[in-house]
Amino acid sequence: MIPLLEGYQVAVPRSLTEALGELARHPGARPFAGGTDLMVLLEAGHLPPGRYVSLQHLSELAGIAETPDGGVAIGALTTYTAIQRSRRLADEYPLLALAARETGGVATQNRGTIGGNIANASPAADTPPVLLVYDADLELVSASGSRRIPYSSFHTGYKQMAIAPGELIARVHLPSRTGWGRSAGGRDYYRKVGTRRAQAISKVCLAAAIRVDAGAVQDVRIALGSVAPTVIRAVRTEESLRGQPLDAGAIAAAERTLLSEIVPIDDIRSSARYRTRVAANLLREFLQG
Amino acid sequence: MADRTHPAVACRLNGRPTALHGHPMSRLLDAIRATGLTGTKEGCGEGECGACAVLIDGTLVNSCLTPLVHADGASITTIEGVAEGDMLHEVQEAFLECGGAQCGICTPGMILAAVELLSRAAEPTEQDVRVALAGNLCRCTGYMRIFESVLDAARRR
User: Fold this and answer.
1) Residues of B with CB below 8 A from A34's CB?
2) What is the spatial distance between Cα B46 and Cα A165, in angstroms, rounded to a whole number?
3) Is the confidence metric ipTM above 0.85 for this complex?
4) Most-buried pick from A175, A249, B6, B36 (CB within 10 A)?
């Protein structure tokens, strides 16, 4: 086992500054957090040898903080367990706690981080659709500064990301949910469909939020996992619903639009046909409330 | 087996200061077993079954997915560290009395997952127990007795 690992070099920076320096010197180095995805690849012989950077000491990037605009900033190293325990998130961003609870078992939730989950870039990830519904921005940092990009433009293709060599995901910013609360006619929805309720990787996952007022859809956000090369926001489906009464005709039209903007595949976990059917069913369940 | 090419990882293993040896990306599971503590089992090797679960600073983790470098400075509890001397932990007592252990391979992980649950929930419901043990697979499929054991342990405290 030991000779096999000699192709992997691991840096263990003690601070964010040190980590960014390491990434600047070695732009091809890959950061890792809890290791819950990385170690599976390593054991299976699918992890490329090279330089890796352990983020274990970067406490600057763990935790949940208020932001001046009334939203929250979630550090990239915040674990799924910490997300479930946050009262603030449970109150205003309830889908996050729901998704966190369905991401692996307790041992995985204790180690797996939101930043790692994003950087793993799986189209079947359970929490990223929620980040799309909540209109998240990602804060990326490097030795030369920081920038923010909308999460909706981060995944550019299967396992492809809009992140430059030397950059690290620092925080996930969620804007205030003012206007989306129950009192404003808002409701949220999250459902993951897998082989087993606990721990299984999704066949299809749908996260959504809607605001209905005076009988018409004021605004709606719909995102899915496992139906395209990346997690996706169903923007055309959303557009078809805005301003419409939430009746059977509008719901049927939205289902048809959804099927035109997802491209599910047959793979080890499910079939394109099943995913198509279930995606439409989840949308209907959400819209019918 | 001392590995001199990598710095030793200093941690506490069941309360005892210990130096673990191996490549920083090697599995904590293997380093623990190399010390002679073989209660920690390898099941699936990919984080699905929980047979390799240990506590790091009181938190349940799968040691097959934990790179050794992450054990640096940590306090690790394996199944061998759950009892205090001859005094079994109430979860262990309950597993014995309720028939929670069958072939035994999943038992160390089940017990550590239960110990972690009881450390954060004083009166868990059966649903709480099911959620806490969802990452631990029993291939004898004796889940009901395992759930009963954990609920019984909670009542003993």
Assistant:
1) 65
2) 28
3) yes
4) B6
**With an 8 Å Cβ cutoff, is B148 touching chain A?**
no
The 3-state DSSP class for residue A32 equals strand
- Structural domains of chain A, count: 3
CB burial string A50-59: b at 16+ within 10 A, e below: ebbbbbbbbe
Tokens of A47: 């992890």
A179 within a domain of the structure (yes/no): no
Q: A130 and A221: one domain?
A: no
CATH of domain B9-81: 3.10.20.30
Comparing A131-140, A166-175, B11-20, B139-148, which segment has the lowest mean pLDDT? B139-148
Q: Are B41 and B109 in contact (CB under 8 A)?
A: yes
Whether residue A143 sits in one domain with residue A77: yes
Two tokens, residue A192? 């993951």
Residue B64 contacts residue A43 (beta carbons within 8 Å)? yes
pLDDT of residue B2: 52
CA distance B94 to A124: 39
What is the domain range of residue A37?
7-54
pLDDT in tens, chain A (289 residues): 445 899 999 999 999 999 999 999 999 999 999 999 999 999 999 999 999 999 999 999 999 999 999 999 999 999 999 999 999 999 999 999 999 998 889 999 999 999 999 999 999 899 999 999 999 999 999 999 999 999 999 999 999 999 999 999 999 999 999 989 888 889 999 999 988 777 778 899 999 999 999 889 999 999 999 999 999 999 999 999 999 999 999 999 999 999 999 999 988 889 999 999 999 999 999 999 8
pLDDT value of position B142: 86
Judged by phi (left if over 0) then psi (alpha if -120 to 50, else beta), residue B138 lies in beta
User: Would you call B116 an interface residue with chain A, using a CB distance cutoff of 8 Å?
Assistant: yes
Q: Per CATH, the architecture of B90-156 is what? A: Orthogonal Bundle (1.10)
Query: Which of B22, B60, B131 lies closest to A110 in CB terms?
Result: B60
Interface size, chain A vs chain B, as Cβ–Cβ contacts under 8 Å: 94
A contact test, residue of B6, B11, B25 with most A CBs within 10 A: B25
Q: Where are the domains of chain B?
A: 9-81, 90-156
Token pair, residue B62, equals: 């799968």
**Residues 6 or more apart whose Cβ sits within 8 Å of residue A206:** A129, A189, A190, A191, A222, A223, A224, A225, A279, A282, A283, A286
